[in-house]
Amino acid sequence: MFYAFASHTDHFNLDSRSSLHDAWLEALTVRETASDERKQIRQLEIQVCLFGPYHDRRVHLNYTGVCEQGKLQFFKRSRM
Asked: What is the pLDDT of residues 69-78, one digit of tens each?
């Protein structure tokens, strides 16, 4: 499923409504799920919701079975 999304040429065409270029981040969810009787088997999931560049659709990306999560850092742009 990931390959089908990543290899679709409309996702790279900047004039396409399916392109992610200039899409707005609407939601980002990082969730740790637990299973097993003692809830000791853990798995990370990341869900991203993007508002399309023409504001006519939402694109949902779901990543399951994430092995590692890094620290996100956001920097404020300084004006010169």
From this structure: 676 665 666 6
Q: What pLDDT band is residue 31 in, cutting at 50, 70 and 90?
A: very high
In 10 A of CB 18, how many CB atoms?
Answer: 17
Q: What is the DSSP string of 9-49?
A: GGGT-TTSTT--TTPEEEEEEEEEEEESTTS-EEEEEEEEE
Give the integer Cα–Cα distance in Å for 73 and 70: 9
**25 phi and psi angles, rounded to 5 deg:** -75, 120
Q: Which amino acid is at 1?
A: M
Amino acid code (one letter) for 60: H
Domain boundaries of the chain, sorted by first residue: 22-67
Phi, psi torsion values for 7, nearest 5 degrees: -95, -5
